[in-house]
């Protein structure tokens, strides 16, 4: 232990009591500022000759510990943890694009990423074109001479279409376009974008990686050090910094990520098959099922790693959908994914409510369409709960 004498002033900081044994758990470091020994020592830090921190917006230990863990999973170096998945998307596009550049995005990206491309970037002089990433000819047709970046998700939300990642990577390589992959849904357990030609890897850590719906965070890693520096400078200037407490929670969540992912995926496969056999189900979408439209590509890209997301459509409209969620209060009806427990979302009333009925119909999202983020519960319980919920949806629908 250090000095046991009381401090002479309440205002003066007391050094952390050291002992021969170290804490097993990671400490949380909430300090906004870090003291240096001298201006020379500060120079050494800023010039990268000595490690250390200066100001939390520029970096802090809890973010760094978390970033290094995700780097390891993604085969990245010097990835950055930021305040949300959208902060990671923002830092990537604003860090690397300038007015006059053009960006192409998958047409079924996460809703706010779509909004970034449709509304925010054009406002800054960066036009965007959306294209179906399962159709390489459509992606190629969207490219312009000034296209600088292509932003894509491997598995789309909520219809779980699988992008032609090999074709897209080859196209980007041939045209010198930066390939940014949002790997939130697939996670490095199923797909490691840097091994397949990506220049940037983006995550919403809020989802499967942190895994407990209690931390909002993002991550971005760049293959090229100069891209990493540009993204870092933009993120620090725009103030996209994560909270140390959130980083600590996410780090703790990450310890069990691989176990959670494997169990949730195993459950998802079984739940998809179970749903497909229930009366009242119009279709079930799961990437590695033989009836999935991208089945062959899913197998080739992901092997058996179909992930934890399952979508399905029931017969009937809004009344049937209401009856389903009411009959299953133990399955959280919540607009998120990747929680340790199973959650259910209804895109027509949440993520896709901004689209009109016709636009939703074009994507195959009707009032009976649900997306399940499967968790780690006992599969027998999940099968029982879903069977009861779907039966209830039929009852109410039949009466209506
Ligand atoms: C694929 C994907 N990317 C990015 C985001 C945004 O992440 P966040 O909510 O952490 O900002 C989400 C959120 O759902 C997402 O699903």
Description:
- The chain is α/β, with parallel strands linked by helices.
- It has three domains: 29-58, no CATH class; 59-255, Type I PLP-dependent aspartate aminotransferase-like (Major domain) (Aspartate Aminotransferase, domain 2, 3-Layer(aba) Sandwich), CATH 3.40.640; 257-399, Aspartate Aminotransferase, domain 1.
- It contains 14 helices and twelve strands.
- The chain has helices spanning 39-46, 61-74, 85-96, 111-123, 136-142, 165-175, 187-190, 225-238, 244-255, 257-276, 295-302, 318-326, 357-363, 379-399; strands at 80-82, 102-106, 128-131, 147-153, 178-182, 200-204, 218-222, 281-285, 309-314, 332-333, 343-345, 369-373.
- The strands form two sheets. The protein has a seven-stranded mixed beta sheet with strand order 1-7-6-5-4-2-3, sandwiched between helices.
- Strand 2, helix 4 and strand 3 form a beta-alpha-beta unit.
- Helix 10 packs across helix 14 (379-399) and helix 12 (318-326) packs across helix 14.
- It is globular and about 75 Å long.
- The N and C termini lie far apart (72 Å).
- The relative contact order is 0.11.
- The model is unreliable at 396-400 (pLDDT under 50).
């Amino acid at each position: 232990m250090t000095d046991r004498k009381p401090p002479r002033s309440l205002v003066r900081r007391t050094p952390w009591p050291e002992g021969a044994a170290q804490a097993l758990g990671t400490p949380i470091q909430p300090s906004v500022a870090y003291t240096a020994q001298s201006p020379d020592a500060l120079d050494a830090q800023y010039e990268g000759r000595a490690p250390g921190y200066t100001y939390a917006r520029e970096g802090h230990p809890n973010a760094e510990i978390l970033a290094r863990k995700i780097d390891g999973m993604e085969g990245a170096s010097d990835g950055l943890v930021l305040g949300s998945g959208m902060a990671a998307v923002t830092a990537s596009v604003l860090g690397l694009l300038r007015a006059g550049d053009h960006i192409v995005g998958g047409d079924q990206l996460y809703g706010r990423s779509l909004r970034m491309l449709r509304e925010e970037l054009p406002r800054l002089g960066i036009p965007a074109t959306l294209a179906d990433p399962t159709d390489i000819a459509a992606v190629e047709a969207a490219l312009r001479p000034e296209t600088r970046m292509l932003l894509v998700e491997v598995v789309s939300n909520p219809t779980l279409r699988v992008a032609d990642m090999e074709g897209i990577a080859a196209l980007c390589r041939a045209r010198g376009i930066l390939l940014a992959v949002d790997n939130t849904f697939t996670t490095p357990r199923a797909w490691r974008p840097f091994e397949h030609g990506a220049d940037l890897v983006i995550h919403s850590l809020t989802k499967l990686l942190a895994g407990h719906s209690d931390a909002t965070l993002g991550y971005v890693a760049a293959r090229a050090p100069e891209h990493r520096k540009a993204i870092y400078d933009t993120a620090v200037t725009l103030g996209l910094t994560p909270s140390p407490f959130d980083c600590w929670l996410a780090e703790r969540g990450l310890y069990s990520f691989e176990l959670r992912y494997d169990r949730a995926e195993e459950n998802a496969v079984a739940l998809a098959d179970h749903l497909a056999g229930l009366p009242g189900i119009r279709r079930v979408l799961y990437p590695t099922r033989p009836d999935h439209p991208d089945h062959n590509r899913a197998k080739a890209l992901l092997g058996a790693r179909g992930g934890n997301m399952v979508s399905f459509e029931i017969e009937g409209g809004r009344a049937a959908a209401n009856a389903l969620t009411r009959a299953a209060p133990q399955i959280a009806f919540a607009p998120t994914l990747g929680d340790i427990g199973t959650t259910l979302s209804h895109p027509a009333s949440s993520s896709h409510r901004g689209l009109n009925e016709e636009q939703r119909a074009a994507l195959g999202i009707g009032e009976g369409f649900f997306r399940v983020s499967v968790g780690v519960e006992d599969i027998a319980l999940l099968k029982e709960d879903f069977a009861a919920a779907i039966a209830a949806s039929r009852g109410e629908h039949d009466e209506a």
